[in-house]
């Protein structure tokens, strides 16, 4: 791996050390596996934090700051996180309601207290979370919405989800397999930062650019920028706590400019040990309790997201052969494109799909053509996907032109 672009070079051994440290410590910073799966699927949490001032801190190189993140050993914390996600998705309006009504309350047949359905709300808009952690066996995250609250509590072997609005409870048990899975998927600013740094090679610039104050804490600003022009990622900025090395804020801005797509971090944080009662939970009287077994819970966050991440980390077409449905990866670094064959037809036109669904699909996608034939490109401000008329899919954090070129080259 090529060295980082900074005053002091970071070698492949340094990068491997970071990964090893991440595997050892990740469980201390994550919520249960069911939450982690949602966080990964939505590409992280996005809080718009109030930065104030530029504290005067000792000079530090990119290598030293990365080492500080790897060495961070915070096990107890509590605080408030503000999340704002702006992928540029269209308002589904009545279509969303009509599709959701077929699957029950939350758009699926699952309990409204099941985190796999409830926490998908974090994929768009602005949200406030209260978080607490006491080592790897005790975490709590509460999503505050208007007068209602949704809480997910991990206390020892028990994992509880509680939705105050419907007075419903979801319960499952953590297992050793859940712990292993926590190490695969990002869920906090720390995890997101380390995932970004894993991609840092000759295609990436990593520098320290000034300081900031986040949630009343002095922090360094670590900036990660793709060098490749085909990526939709503009830059990633990580505010790293100067004292503890814990990432306090993670901001991903798109190459197209404008507001951040992903911006996750604390508005208030304390590193004092939370009270043990913080993680206690007893189902309220009259609450409907749904039991879910551990394999089912871990399965929510496994599946496509986990296997695709393994293939993307390998970064070549050959490495994708073990992925689901013949998943391959074209290219490397920030220009990586995942591709697979659905074995069916592409996106139906409005007339073929009929009704509101057809009109929605036509408005959402752009028709494209090339040597590969014809297809439809679906865009967000970060992830774009090309679905060809013969059922092949190309998806990545790359431009429309990059997707078309990849499909042409594969023809």
Report on the structure:
The chain has two domains: 12-301, Lipoprotein localisation LolA/LolB/LppX (outer membrane lipoprotein receptor (LolB), chain A, Clam); 307-410, TATA-Binding Protein. It has 411 residues and is an alpha+beta fold. The protein is built from twelve helices and 18 strands. A twelve-stranded mixed β-sheet has the order 7-8-9-10-11-1-2-3-4-5-6-12, covered by helices on one side. Strands 13-14-18-17-16-15 form a six-stranded antiparallel β-sheet, with helices on both faces. α1 packs parallel to α3 (62-71), α1 runs antiparallel to α7 (189-198) and α2 packs parallel to α8.
The major β-sheet equals:
12 strands, mixed
Termini separation: 31 Å
Q: Provide the CATH topology of the largest domain.
A: outer membrane lipoprotein receptor (LolB), chain A
What order do the helices and strands follow?
HHHEHHEEEEEHHEEEEEEHHEEHHEEEEH
Strand content: 25-35%
User: C-alpha Rg, in Å?
Assistant: 22 Å
Please bin the fraction of helical residues: 25-40%
Strand arrangement in the largest pleated sheet: 7-8-9-10-11-1-2-3-4-5-6-12
- Overall pLDDT level: 74
Shape category = globular
Q: Quickly count the domains.
A: 2
Keywords: Membrane, Transmembrane, Transmembrane helix
Biased composition (Basic and acidic residues): 303-322
Transmembrane segments: 29-50
Biased composition (Low complexity): 96-115
